[in-house]
Protein 1
Amino acid sequence: MTAPGRHRIAELPIGRRVAQLRARRGLTQQVFADRIGKSHSWVDKVERGIRSLDRISVVHTVAAVLGVTPETILGPTTTRRPEPATDTTAAAVEHLRAALARYDTPTPNQPSPSVEDLHHRIGYAHSAYQHAHYPQLLRMLPDLLTHTRHTTSAHAPRSDAAAHLPTRVYRITAHLLTKLDEPHLAWLAADRAIATAAGHPRHTAAAAIALAQALRALHRSTLAMQAALTAVPLIDPAATDDPAPDDHALAGTLLVEAALAAATGNDPAGAHHYTDRAAKLAATRPGDNATDTTTGFGPTAVALAQAQIATILGNPHQAITHHKHATAGHGWRELPAEHRAAHLIDITRAYLDTGNPTAAARAIVAADQIAPAETRTRPAAHRVVTTLLRTGPTPDLTRLATTIGLTP
């Protein structure tokens, strides 16, 4: 049964729709304005229909604060229309590049969002990344980078709570840009994450993960390995009698990154050494051996890394063995959708190297079912689909290729 009033809200003009949803959340116009990083006047004009919501990124921010989907804000007739051609991944990356290049300060007409609101929005962005909602995240990040910079500037040096907000946003930005084959821009964002961490051990260690990934994408395997290993002592659980719960996960993830960098640099001994160290940390985490919800680190993540390392080092049969073992356990289902889909894209190379394009096609289709944006947004996935189309497309693969816009 449809909830009372739902059809009536959908039929309202967008401004009045926002006003009703805001009122249902018990927010005044001023509180709502603070949470979305806009002025009271801006909110009032939108709700009265004087000003339009003409930016997708703002729509997503408004929806997040109101606890609804962007479709609820936009309404049914708007969402049926295709997005404009300018709202492509390439155009969104350019908006993100522009946001990274800006150094403006807040004006009186654009008050900074509260620290509490930014914590909420950054948490939302992190969740969007873990669920591989990359188009949505691309739309959010430019404004989030700007608002975080403004708020941090406004609160400095008084608020410790605001101090490391930029580090978190730069980290998410770097991870996403690495996914999108923008390693130089990812390196810039990761470097800023390191800089804004200002020597804080855990924030620096987390930023080093993003830096190592960006450097590896730039084929700077030695630098990537050094970046990861330099950060490990900052949060090494063996160096303290009372490590924080996430220290094991951060240290383990850094060791996994070091192992992947070693493999990329054709150093099998180093790759196996760092993987073994990561496996020991995964087995000795406080509590149970479940997957860490923030980093995705755990025994399954180490096993998946072993599969990727075996693929990189030219041992596809060994890679598939690791893959099958890791994906058969309950830990596989605990991993974020982003991690699982990314691994399935990676393992297609091992299947292709063993002469099994059918299994490779099943893997890429399964990745699309888990996290569609992982296959439909990432250039690496497009290359895999293109390769598989040449080897003999299956019906499912053909449908996926058509959806992506690739020629079967």
Note: Confidence is low (pLDDT under 50) at residues 1-7, 76-87.
Protein 2
Amino acid sequence: MNDFSNVARGGLSARELETVLRQVGAERYHNLHPFHHLMTAGLLTKAQMQAWALNRYCYQAVIPRKDAAILARAEDPAFRAEWRKRIEDHDGEDGWSGGIARWLKLATGLGLPAEAVKSERLALPATRFAVGAYLTFCANRTLLEAVASSLTELFSPVIIGERVPAMLARYDYVTKDILSYFDKRPEQASRDSDFALAYVLKHADTPERQQAAIDALVFKCDVLWAMLDALMHAYVEPGHIPPGAFRPETV
């Protein structure tokens, strides 16, 4: 397992940098997490699936906010024109017809009350901390690092390709309509990651910037991994649900 913390003094070619970035995903993306494996094996209870959907909503809801923070710092109009598509994808034209609304549809389709999900008050503390850290990172680090952190989208078609067929096949209460969030995501993620990767390869033009870009992607993978760690600890093993967090019997 690489720690990805030692770019050669002379730096990397664009092709070498891309190889390293893709290797980060191959070793650290959360499709490798045990919670994901339980999901795709059909071994999660409905309550555990609900906990996943409720907590993941916090992440989905922050995406347009972190993208707005990136937009606010970008001086290139062409960059802004491309990047704002991400906000439109998640918010929709009216604020509630995009990806966030479709994720809420997934959560309510699993039996959760919409207001409980939208309030985020039942999310795990670790989820809120991880999501907040991601927003802070994108608002305060360099534009290159913020863009590089989004490169987990390079790997999202893989996890969607594993998750969606397994959920439809192994959970009789899951329907294709409930999972409509995922219909557009592979195409959107491919478009967005192509643009972000090209940006990173162009602007990570020193060893220091290359290392910063790699570290940003590692950080983002850690955010997603930490969210599943928290779910595993609270709802699978050992089952320690923090005070105030989602308990199936109370919703």
Note: The chain has one domain: 15-235.
